[in-house]
Amino acid sequence: MKNIQVLHIGEFEQEKSYPYFYIDTFRRHSDNFHKTITIPHKHNFFVVVLFTQGRGTHEIDFNSYEIKPGSVFLMYPGQVHHWQFTEDTDGYVLFHTQEFYEMHYINRPVNNFPFYFSTQNPPYLLLNTAETSEMTRYFEEILSEYREENLRKMQRIVSLLDLLYIDLSRLYLQSGAEKTAVPVAYTRKIRQLEKLIERHYTTEKLASAYAEMMHVSPKHLNRMVKTSLQKTTSDLIIERVMLEAKRLLVHSPNAFSDIARQLGYEDYAYFSRLFKQKTGLTPSEFVKKYK
């Protein structure tokens, strides 16, 4: 087994003119990069995919979603995923970096959109026929602009992308897909916490340590997390550890004991008990079941 490959936009943008944005039909994209996208991989950019025909499955961080007409996937950097789909599958695929969006909308981080706000919110939305047609027009217009060399090309593309995100946000919220509706007062703090966990989860497992990093009391931090996510700070930390454990157990060539140490656990027996407590399976049982 190999370590999980991290893909960059430049690997898809063949002309290398725009290393921060890419769009194509899904069929052309899959024809050109079939071997790359059908094995587990990560991106260092945001991904939006709309399917207009075909069937299949899309696995994102060990959760499986159905591909069918109207399926929309909205993924943020770092998620591990791969596709399986029928030959007639088509739609649109769009990539962009965080900087591409935020250099145009300085006061509106891309993470403010509900599907990107929290790791607790699912990356999937199913549209009806009318909604699919409406979103298709956005993708077609962006794709048309992308292929031309007009004045202020990228400025128009990012404006269309913003409108696409706004309308997808409305549909996402209306569908009830959002699992986390964070109070406005806590928005920045929860995003800050998730970023800190992402940076430190292998070395720091204590909720109190994250409270100290954020200059708030552990009690207040836990109250914000409880109110916003219906979980504890410790839940968020251990969930991130377990997700990475699953990724490494399945995709890394390292021994289980080495993986435990990589995640900050010198005692493999303790790590194995913790993993079973959180997933219901031992590490070896999980790998066997996954394969």
From TrEMBL:
GO terms for molecular function: DNA-binding transcription factor activity; sequence-specific DNA binding. The keyword DNA-binding applies. SMART domains: HTH_ARAC. Keywords: DNA-binding, Transcription, Transcription regulation. Gene3D superfamilies: Homeodomain-like (1.10.10.60), Jelly Rolls (2.60.120.10). It holds the Pfam family AraC_binding. SUPFAM superfamilies: Homeodomain-like, Regulatory protein AraC. Residues 191-289 form the HTH araC/xylS-type domain. InterPro entries: AraC-bd, Homeodomain-like_sf, HTH-like, HTH_AraC, RmlC-like_jellyroll, Tscrpt_reg_AraC-type_HTH. This is Helix-turn-helix domain-containing protein. It comes from Sinomicrobium weinanense.
